[in-house]
Each structure stands twice: as structure tokens, then as C-alpha cells.
Amino acid sequence: AELFDKSYVKGEQSALKDSKDSVEKAWKGYSICNEAIIDPNNAWIEAQSLVSRQLDPGLSKSQVLFWASTREGFSTGTTVDLHDDDATGTVPDRPVAPSNNKNSGATTKRLANCSSHEKCVAENLAGSCCPTHEGVFLRCCT
Question: Which position has the higher pLDDT, 84 or 136?
């Protein structure tokens, strides 16, 4: 039996979408676990920025990663790849889920740019924000 069915979680996610920035760090792990029911690969990627000591004491980053990786639809090819993997010599700016879309790498790099995030633009940030080249997701990325 399912804990929550996908249609319930989709409705819940759409209700929380506008308040996603207001989710306290302690609850962020639970929010990502909830997302894993719908999209485990994206949840895995989001979980990479978690820090266990900032989460609710009953949850850890490893538990969130375990939950996401055991949901139906999770691809074992979902990785955080920060190595030079193409002929251009560029390093991917964000962990990526596997995709059959040949343009997904360009999309991922574009999403890492500060200019792709309204809050980062409002803070006059430039370059890579989501994450930075050091792998840190800035506050404006949410």
C-alpha cells in the first residue's frame, strides 16, 4: 500500500509551490521526500544540497537520498557529475538526471546560471548560482 498516492502529492506540491521559499531548513528534507513520490530523480538532485545537521533531528541527508532512490521511477544513472565530460572542456554546473533529450546538458547549464532565477537577478548576481562552481546552491535558487 502507498503512503501517499501521486495525485495527492501533486495537489499538495502545487499548493506548496508558492510557499517553497518559506519552508524552514528543518523541513526541507521532508519536502524533498514528498517530491520523490512524484519525481525521484529531481528529488535526488535537490537532496544533494541538504546538510544533515540543518534538518529535523529525526531525518538525515542519507535517509532522504535512500527514500528518493527507492521510489518507483528512480534511475540509477541519476548522478552528481562535476567532471569534465565533453569535448568543450566545460564542467556541468548542476547535478543532472539522465535524459534522452540531447539538449538536456545545455538546459541544465542554463538553469545553473544566476540569470535563470528571478531572485538571483533581483540580487544582481551573475555567473553560476544554482549551484556555484563550488557546488553550493545559493539562497536565491529556491
Answer: 136
